[in-house]
Amino acid sequence: MKKTLLRGLFNVLPLVLSIWLFWSLFESLDEVGNFLFGLVHITELFKGAGFLLILILLFVAGLLFSVSPIAWLYDFVIRQLMRFPFFKTVYSSINDIASLMSSDNKNKNQQTVLVHQANNTYIVGFIMANETPEPLSNALPDGDWVPVLFPLSYQIAGITTLVKREDLTIVDWSFEDAMRYNLTAGISVSAKDKEEKEKEKEKEKQTTDHATNEQK
């Protein structure tokens, strides 16, 4: 009974927490949108109207930032605000996380690699950029050095190590699947892997059933 209860908990908990997280985000954005409606003396139209308003404003902002004068003006304002140390620290941290999550800023050259260790073991890492900053290049011995990220389990942060490209083993593995594997130490597998395993089990079951029917 205990195992059955835990199995139900571990299967239902991720779904419940995910729904709760997205619902909380929806409620928060909806409240902000309704506050903006209130500034122009518009009462709540329907549930979710504030959320739709925020989405529309974000879409309009995206269009505006594609216009050079608007983008230049925004950059100018940010540069002025960056003169304040506290603002610079907070803004830079949030901006780095947003850039990491943005699909527009994803490095198409991200590669999954294996790095050989001294004790004849390998560690999974990721080439995040093809160039090393000039100060580091000047300090390092001659060679083609690239920054390799070794993420820490269940954390955004990780250890960045500079490794010679010739010492890396390129792996034909998608960044998302390899990152998921690394963060969970192999506990989590991709949906594609699960689907393939289920198909294999189903195929084996059909083969076994067919063999059993022929024997009968």
UniProtKB/TrEMBL annotation:
**Residue ranges, annotated region (Disordered):** 190-216
Q: Which InterPro entries match?
A: COV1-like
Source organism superkingdom: Bacteria
Renumbered to this chain, the Basic and acidic residues biased-composition regions fall at 191-216
Q: Which keywords fit this entry according to its UniProt record?
A: Membrane, Transmembrane, Transmembrane helix
Q: From the record, give the transmembrane residue ranges.
A: 12-29, 49-74
User: What protein does this entry describe?
Assistant: DUF502 domain-containing protein
